[in-house]
Amino acid sequence: MLEGMTEANCIFCKIANGEIPTEIIFQSEQILAFNDIAPEAAIHALIIPKKHFRDVADLTTQDKTLAAELLAAATELAEQLTDGNFKLQFNTGAEAGQTIFHVHAHLLSNSPRKLT
Ligand code: AMP
Ligand code: ZN
Fold first, then answer.
1. Residue 52 is among the residues annotated as catalytic for this protein
2. Residue of the nearest CA to atom 8 in ligand 1?
3. Who's near 26: CB < 8 A, 6+ residues apart?
4. Could you report the per-residue pLDDT of 87-102, keeping only the tens digit for each?
5. Shortest CA distance to 82 belongs to which of 107, 54, 51?
6. Is 47 exposed, middle or buried (0-12, 13-18, 19+ CB in 10 A)?
7. pTM attached to this predicted model
8. Which residues have C-beta atoms less than 6 Å from ligand 1?
9. CA nearest 12: which of 27, 34, 42, 28?
10. Which ligand is closest in space to the CA of residue 8?
11. Which of 75, 97, 72 is nearest to 86 (CA)?
12. How many whole angstroms separate alpha carbon 101 and alpha carbon 48?
């Protein structure tokens, strides 16, 4: 994968570059988060690097700083949306359930943060 390159036909690259409109729930220079289109929990968000990597192994091998940033963003979002009970999941490989080969963390929780 070349630096800054966008994968043709990658749906999450298209979300990251604005070709497919999505409601953004968190954004920084390199990271984006949006709600999963088919939620499996009360809170089900996806957190991605804007740059394309096929999976979490690829990301971590190639850019540990960005991997740490992704984890920090996911945790920050979890703190905003949940009461501290949540899962972060990276499906890696088709046999493990990965269907979109642009690395994404699933943030899953049935414990929304209570507004005071
Ligand atoms: P995975 O199976 O781990 O690759 O996760 C892919 C996730 O992306 C699934 O949970 C899908 O529901 C979700 N998804 C697919 N297309 C979209 C989309 N356009 N917007 C938001 N989430 C999507
Ligand atoms: Zn991509």
1. no
2. 36
3. 32, 33, 45, 47, 73, 76, 77
4. 999 999 999 999 999 9
5. 107
6. buried
7. 0.95
8. 11, 22, 34, 36-38, 46, 91, 97-100
9. 34
10. 2
11. 75
12. 11
